[in-house]
Amino acid sequence: MTLADSTPEKTSPWHAGERMLQTHVGVADRMAQIGPKIIRDFMPDQHRDFFAQLPFLVLGAVDAQGDPWAGVLEGEPGFASSPDAHTLRVAAMPDESDPLRAGMGPGQAVGLLGIELHTRRRNRMNGRIAAWNGKRFDVAVAQSFGNCPQYIQSRDFYFSRSPALHFADARPETERLDEAARAMIRAADTFFVASYVGDADARAVDVSHRGGKPGFVRVDGDVLTIPDFSGNRFFNTLGNLTANPRAGLVFIDFERGDVLQVSGRAEVILDSPEIQDFAGAERLWRVHVRRVLRRPGALALRWRFGDYSPTALATGQWPG
Fold first, then answer.
1. Measuring CA to CA, how many Å separate 77 from each of 49, 67, 114, 299?
2. Is 304 strand, coil or helix?
3. Neighbours of 303 (CB within 10 A)
4. Which spans of this chain does the record mark as coiled coil (predicted)?
5. CB atoms within 10 A of CB 265
């Protein structure tokens, strides 16, 4: 997440955690110049139109315990709309069983990611819930910016039922990953991560995409180790985790609509021989899982592989 702090450079959108990592890789001066140009406090028309055509949004929120959660809101395209450049209106709510629900309400900080898997486009936005009636909510934009399509697995979507029908069979929350959860993570080529900085009165939440070849997340009991590949050098997620070591991850079974949400303590690894164990990784980060929720069939959406099949991924034929 990007949060300006009380530094002399008031126009900087980067907080201390992001700047530390940008300095570590030698791009701090460049990011200081381009940051104010690419991080906006409004959504350009292209982003507003983009959100309005999506069948789902990824959302990040923080519950009363200070634990971040990532999850998915879905609806027929048009369920998200933008009445003006400073507002995103979402006509969908999380299920009662979704841990996102505990972090949502009037004035609460949230992060949103609009991602279109079949075109591999994505745009991010964060802000606070400005209007709320229990059925829909508005988010007042604090920061809006685009991301490149790198590491996004191409998939085409369809609805298996009406997204208005909710009948997820949520399992009780646990403190550990069971073998089914571990198997789901080991098979994943995609997940989404929520993180944040600041306290409840001045909080900024971010949610972002992570992708790799199936199995790119290493599972050791209840510890997940994730490679960090070359990217835009913003360090939104890792900057947050450096400043506030808490992360919420969501994994999706794209064929069955199952959702696995975990939250736990995070750590960023910048220099270790272990990095060499992950092909292409520039650094690593870990999540020590403390809370787990499995929600089979939670999503009405299903996805099929698009231009890049598992075979292509396995042979290193990455998009982009």
1. 11, 30, 12, 15
2. strand
3. 21
4. none
5. 15
Three-state secondary structure call for residue 217: coil
pLDDT tens for each residue of 206-252: 999 999 999 999 999 999 999 999 877 889 999 999 999 999 999 99
Helices and strands in the chain: count of H runs, count of E runs: 6, 16
Structure tokens at 47: 């982003």
Core vs surface per residue 70-89: b (16+ CB within 10 A) or e: bbbbbbeeebbbbeebbbbb
The predicted model scores a pTM of 0.91
Q: What is the DSSP letter of 172?
A: P
In single-letter form, the type of residue at position 104 comes to M
Return d(Cα 313, Cα 163) in angstroms, integer: 30
**What pLDDT digit, counting tens, does each position of 85-139 carry?**
999 999 999 998 999 999 999 999 999 999 999 999 999 999 999 999 989 999 9
Residue entry with tokens 């702090």: 5
Q: Which of 262, 242, 243, 240 is nearest to 251 (CA)?
A: 262
